């Protein structure tokens, strides 16, 4: 009898242990599935810690648009890829307008933009069923530059810049701009018409009259080509984002601009406080809402906004206030 009771006790204890083990396995299996299904959709906030396989991201996030925003997005893409090695993030530079054309055609997930989306571009996106989220990422100071060899320009007024660049201008030499300048031909360099920098300069300096298009001016969507053009001509002048001046200070000289309150040069402080007027501007990325449903895109957008303030200073731009980044991050949720 004692042996039978002992055997029964052991048997019952074994059954309890087996049942507990089965329940534990069932719970673990369900937790793993939940983590896998919700990766990206809940941004890895499942109750149980997901496995490494569950949170591993892959795929491709195509980005194109502004050459001004390119250094910011490239920096974010490179750092993001260090954490998510199976996600490809190619970044193109077709200009803000070129980026929006691809974006509204559903060809890219994110558009870099150095200006807000235009009404006709927004309409094109709406007609194509593309809904999007606009995210502010940094400030820029559109910089007017001349060669380091230029020894006669100490500043230019908005009116003088208008006289040089506006469509229909008959200005040919620097002396035509200001009597004290030399009678040497002006060589101009400008971003192309698909560039948001072109649009911003046209609006802020030329009052939307348009930029001249004659043999005295060269256009390029590649800001590095503009840098080389201006640097190589003592009598050249051009304009582009502050980061490209910062990177090439050894061969370029920035021109302080007088917008009516005295000549002010672009610096981190004058861009951030808006005193570098009228050429301080915000920069943006536009993210397709449909693409945001992909976990890798949502995670990249979150990473971008969380880290771009740090990257901005590293690549020559001015970060937004922390509270604004918090506002932008809330849009992604």
From TrEMBL:
BP terms from Gene Ontology: phosphate ion transport
Cited PROSITE patterns: PROKAR_LIPOPROTEIN
Membrane topology per record: Lipid-anchor
Pfam family, one: PBP_like_2
Signal peptide span: 1-22
UniProt-recorded Gene Ontology molecular function terms: phosphate ion binding
Top-level taxon: Bacteria
Protein's cellular compartments: Cell membrane
InterPro entries in UniProt: PBP_domain, Phos-bd, Phosphate_ABC_transporter
Gene3D superfamilies: Periplasmic binding protein-like II
Keywords recorded for this protein, A-Z: Cell membrane, Lipoprotein, Membrane, Palmitate, Phosphate transport, Signal, Transport
One CC-aspect GO term: plasma membrane
Annotated ranges, domain PBP: 57-307
UniProt family annotation: Belongs to the PstS family.
Quaternary state and interactors: The complex is composed of two ATP-binding proteins (PstB), two transmembrane proteins (PstC and PstA) and a solute-binding protein (PstS).
Function: Part of the ABC transporter complex PstSACB involved in phosphate import. Involved in the system for phosphate transport across the cytoplasmic membrane.
Protein name: Phosphate-binding protein
């Amino acid at each position: 009898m004692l042996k039978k009771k002992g055997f029964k006790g052991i048997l019952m204890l074994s059954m309890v242990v087996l049942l507990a083990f089965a329940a534990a396995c069932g719970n673990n299996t369900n937790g793993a599935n939940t983590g896998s299904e919700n990766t990206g959709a809940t941004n890895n906030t499942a109750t149980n810690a997901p496995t490494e396989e569950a949170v591993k991201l892959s795929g491709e996030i195509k980005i194109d648009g502004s050459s001004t925003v390119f250094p910011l997005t490239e920096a974010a893409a490179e750092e993001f890829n260090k954490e998510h090695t199976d996600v490809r993030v190619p970044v193109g530079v077709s200009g803000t307008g070129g980026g929006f054309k691809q974006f509204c055609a559903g060809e890219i997930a994110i558009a870099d933009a150095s200006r807000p989306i235009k009404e006709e571009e927004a309409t094109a996106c709406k007609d194509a069923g593309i809904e999007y989220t606009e995210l502010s990422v940094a400030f820029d100071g559109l910089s007017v530059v001349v060669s380091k060899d230029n020894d006669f320009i100490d500043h230019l007024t908005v009116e003088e810049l208008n006289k040089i660049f506006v469509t229909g201008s008959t200005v040919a030499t620097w002396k035509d701009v200001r009597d004290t300048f030399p009678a040497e031909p002006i060589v101009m360099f400008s971003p192309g018409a698909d560039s948001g920098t072109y649009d911003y300069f046209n609006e802020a300096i030329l009052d939307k009259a348009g930029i001249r298009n004659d043999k005295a001016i060269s256009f390029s969507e590649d800001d590095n080509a503009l840098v080389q053009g201006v640097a190589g001509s003592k009598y050249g002048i051009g304009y582009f984002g502050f980061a490209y001046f910062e990177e090439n200070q050894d061969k370029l000289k920035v021109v302080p601009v007088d917008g009516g309150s005295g000549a002010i040069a672009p610096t981190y402080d004058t861009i951030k406080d808006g005193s570098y007027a009228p050429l301080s501007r915000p920069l943006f990325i536009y993210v397709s809402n449909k693409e945001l449903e992909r976990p890798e895109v949502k995670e990249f957008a979150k990473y971008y906004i969380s880290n771009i303030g740090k990257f901005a200073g590293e690549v020559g731009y001015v970060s937004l206030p922390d509270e604004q980044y918090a506002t932008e991050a809330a849009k992604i949720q």
